[in-house]
Design a protein that fits this description.
Number of helices: 7
Shape: elongated
Radius of gyration: 18 Å
Number of strands: 0
Strand content: under 5%
Order of helices and strands: HHHHHHH
Oligomer: single chain
Structural class: mainly alpha
Largest sheet: none
């Protein structure tokens, strides 16, 4: 695949990530989005129904699939994708139960910790770390073979 084509596809996929973010209010129920805009400032509490956790899960899944596509287009290496899937799975296995625990056991004044754990789950942070890491790995492996 030509470099220009790769860049255009990656930009399109980044655009998809931006669309997920732009339409988060429409497609994903997350009371934290509203809570920290108004209710937190008023000192109110918030109710967290069970389907909120499903929405965080689906948003994580959508962002992960798009991020894995970005990594595949950038590197076209199945071992990198397999490793990335393991990283994303580990990330989810650690953070999602922590998020659920925090939501059920944290007092309203301590919601900020749960908010930031949710933010790591709901936003495509890992792709920002993995792209340069795999690029550096590729440069290092190419320089060591020459």
């Amino acid at each position: 695949m030509k470099a220009v084509t790769k860049i255009l596809i990656i930009l399109g996929l980044v655009g998809l990530l931006a669309l997920v973010r732009m339409y988060e209010y429409r497609f994903f129920y997350d009371p934290f989005m509203y809570f920290f805009e108004k209710q937190y400032m008023d000192g109110e509490s918030i109710a967290f129904p069970a389907y909120m956790f499903w929405n965080v899960f689906w948003r994580f899944l959508v962002n992960t699939l798009i991020s894995l596509l970005i990594l595949y287009v950038a590197f076209q290496n199945r071992s990198i994708i397999k490793f990335s899937v393991l990283i994303y799975a580990g990330f989810f296995i650690v953070l999602f139960p922590l998020f659920v625990y925090l939501m059920h056991h944290v007092q309203p004044e301590d919601y900020l910790a749960a908010f930031y754990v949710r933010r790591f789950l709901a936003h495509p942070v890992l792709v920002l770390l993995l792209l340069p890491a795999f690029y550096y790995y590729r440069i290092q492996s190419e320089s060591s073979t020459n």
